[in-house]
Design the sequence.
């Protein structure tokens, strides 16, 4: 067993633990922390897949910004103690388990039939080019320039949307209280 | 090096966990986190395929997915806060009417 395979197996176990913990734990703060564990594991997998730039992005954007946002909202709403109510559909839980199992079996079976077990044989030069953030940046600002700019607009719309959604409409009653 | 199909199988397992979370949890915040888990599983598959094909395009797509996910989380959580302020609940079964 090579060192790389061992690293992959350890990280895969950690990632799966994070996912299972997120689904199973009742306390929402615990769920969020297990999701954080999962994000860390996936960032290490990105590193194993020769993309250090995405490793850094995963850590700063997902594990940093998005998780802070989740934890902030959970604690703001005091939602960590909210218990799941009973299902309105009878047997939804068991049906969900069966369907998820079918989905897993299907995807693994398709992968076993069509996927190859050969390790990717890339030239060292190709690997160096792939793992270089400069290659990604050059591609981003030439071939994918228009999608890149559209992403900027999406972020702007997101910011405006958040402000509009959480704007409190001043009613006449509120104004009376202030005065 | 590790075969790409190992990464794809891990990605499938993580995606299934996300689906399971959406289906069996009723807390809207946890449902939302499950969606993030599914996005991450898809990202993992994309990066694995990028390495197999020896092209950078998969990584560029992951970059876009992460940016859009960040915007989506911000808007989604703002919606959750607005719903919680009006209805005092984060339960997806309780939010079932269109008018306030």
Sequence:
């Amino acid at each position: 067993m090579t060192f790389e395979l061992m690293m992959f197996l350890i990280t895969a176990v950690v990632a799966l633990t994070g996912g299972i913990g997120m689904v199973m734990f009742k306390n929402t703060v615990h769920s969020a922390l297990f999701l954080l564990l999962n994000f860390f594991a996936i960032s290490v997998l990105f590193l194993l897949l020769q993309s250090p730039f995405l490793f850094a992005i995963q850590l700063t954007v997902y594990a940093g910004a998005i998780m802070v946002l989740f934890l902030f909202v959970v604690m703001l709403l005091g939602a960590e103690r909210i218990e799941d109510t009973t299902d309105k559909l009878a047997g939804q839980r068991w049906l969900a388990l069966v369907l998820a199992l079918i989905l897993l079996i299907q995807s693994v079976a398709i992968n076993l039939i069509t996927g190859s077990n050969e390790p990717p044989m890339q030239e060292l030069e190709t690997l160096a080019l792939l793992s270089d953030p400069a290659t990604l940046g050059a591609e981003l600002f030439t071939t994918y320039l228009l999608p890149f700019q559209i992403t900027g607009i999406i972020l702007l719309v997101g910011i405006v949307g958040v402000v509009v959604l959480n704007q409190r409409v001043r009613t006449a009653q509120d104004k009376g209280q202030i005065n | 090096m590790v075969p790409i199909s190992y990464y794809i199988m891990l990605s499938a397992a993580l995606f299934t966990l996300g689906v399971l979370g959406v289906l069996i949890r009723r807390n809207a915040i946890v449902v939302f986190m499950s969606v993030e888990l599914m996005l991450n599983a898809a990202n993992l598959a994309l990066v694995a395929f990028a390495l197999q094909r020896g092209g950078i395009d998969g990584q560029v797509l992951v970059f876009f997915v992460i940016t859009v996910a960040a915007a989506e989380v911000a808007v989604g959580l703002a919606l959750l806060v607005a719903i919680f302020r009006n209805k005092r609940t984060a339960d997806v079964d309780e939010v079932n009417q269109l008018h306030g």
